[in-house]
Design goal:
three-stranded mixed β-sheet; Cyt_P450; iron; monooxygenase activity; mainly alpha; about 250 residues
């Protein structure tokens, strides 16, 4: 996609417009930080992650503004959108208005299962994510993949695989690409979902101390199914998952 002139790419891919603007903003921010560091300017009030990266012992080729701007996109996405997309309580939390203790929420098996399923279905991208092994041959079953050859797999094919998940439609990454803010992401999900579900029930299941109830509003399976080959977007015209609140 980066081989296209930006004006052409933005007309062909609607999603690319906001992405290109985001990358350009990050690029300008990184260059400003680089100028501060080159001038040994210590007057800035607070540092961003780019200050740390530019002063790290990484090879210089890994610290170019263009390289860091590209890396900032998945960094921001992993730290915000993924947790936001995925967001027995009455006994564990008797008072729905009390502050929720993270430790108490982490001990609830069913809530944990709900969050994990939400993460599995919260696809970061629907396109292929290539990986290149530069220092050794990859062995897969009876095949050997030479060094330098891109290997890729789409997240939906893995997360919605019926051989792994018996009913995949109705995990957080591991390895070198693991989520840097994994503990914060888990805390956001536990506290956000736990608080919401403790205070609001539904028509069929409602506790005596619930503050209200929720019902899906004009929402069907098509509003959550992936319908795009690059980003995990739903069908055109969908208004997403909508909920009605009742007292």
């Amino acid at each position: 996609m980066h081989a296209f002139p930006e004006s052409i790419a933005m007309s062909m891919f609607l999603e690319f417009s906001s992405l290109a603007i985001n990358i350009r903003q990050r690029l300008n921010e990184i260059r400003a930080v680089q100028r501060q560091l080159d001038a040994k300017d210590v007057s800035h009030d607070k540092e961003s992650i780019f200050h740390s990266l530019l002063q790290s012992d990484q090879p210089e080729i890994e610290k170019t503004p263009e390289r860091l701007a590209q890396e900032s996109v998945p960094l921001a996405g992993a730290g915000t959108y993924t947790a936001a997309w995925a967001m027995t309580l009455e006994v564990a939390l008797p008072n729905p208005l009390a502050h929720v203790a993270l430790g108490a929420l982490e001990q609830l098996p069913y809530l944990t299962a709900v969050i994990k399923e939400g993460l599995r279905l919260s696809l970061g991208l629907s396109s292929r994510l290539p990986r290149i092994m530069v220092d050794k041959i990859i062995k897969f079953q009876s095949w050997e993949i030479p060094t330098g050859v891109p290997v890729s797999m789409t997240i939906p094919l893995v997360h919605l695989n019926e051989k792994t998940f018996l009913t995949p439609a109705p995990s957080i990454l591991n390895g070198s690409r693991n989520c840097l803010g994994i503990n914060l992401a888990w805390a956001e999900l536990y506290i956000g979902i736990g608080t919401l579900l403790r205070r609001l029930g539904k028509l069929e299941v409602r506790g005596s101390s619930d503050l209200g109830r929720m019902e899906l509003f004009e929402t069907n399976v098509g509003d959550v199914e992936v319908a795009d080959g690059l980003f995990p977007l739903v069908k055109a015209g969908s208004k997403g998952v909508r909920v009605k609140l009742f007292k």
